[in-house]
């Protein structure tokens, strides 16, 4: 069977047996019809889309969906990109992109172990110096801006560390 999918309700694809359409916006990225269609597609079916971008929000998601469909022996045809998954060169490219994507994702995950959630490297702080300035600040002998400058920290880094170490209850001072 030949299915069509679009994330634009005004887009109608020709020569398909059944059309699935989602209304997708920046605020609502849910693709209910696409999920229904992906579950319905079987070996030998064809999925026609105007563009690969209609299948997901990012390269990784699009590659993942196309790879799943190709592995199920579903033909994927994209009109704008002149893409046909039954073409042997296209299948090889899908596998290459999937491998690159998997390698890139694994590398990012391994680097994440040495960084915090925002991707920053952990800041090494001399505890003795931090505690010295903390006590001066607590006794109102020094202001935070001088403390930050003496430690050589950027504004954002200082206040992030301050929040982590001192806690939000003392930020009002």
Instruction: Return the structural class.
Output: alpha/beta
Radius of gyration: 26 Å
Instruction: List the uncertain runs.
Output: none
Tell me how many strands there are: 5
Shape: elongated
Total individual domains: 2
Q: So what's the CATH class of the largest domain?
A: Alpha Beta
Quick tags:
single chain; 173 residues; alpha/beta; Rossmann fold; 5-stranded mixed β-sheet; 5 strands; 46% helix
Describe what you observe in this structure.
The chain is built from 6 helices and 5 strands, in the order ββαβαββαααα. The chain is an alpha/beta fold. It has 2 domains: 2-112, 3-Layer(aba) Sandwich (Rossmann fold); 127-170, no CATH class. Strands 2-1-3-4-5 form a 5-stranded mixed β-sheet, covered by helices on one side. Strand 3 (46-49), helix 2 (59-71) and strand 4 form a beta-alpha-beta unit. Helix 2 crosses helix 3 (88-112). The chain is elongated. The model has no long low-confidence stretch (mean pLDDT 80).
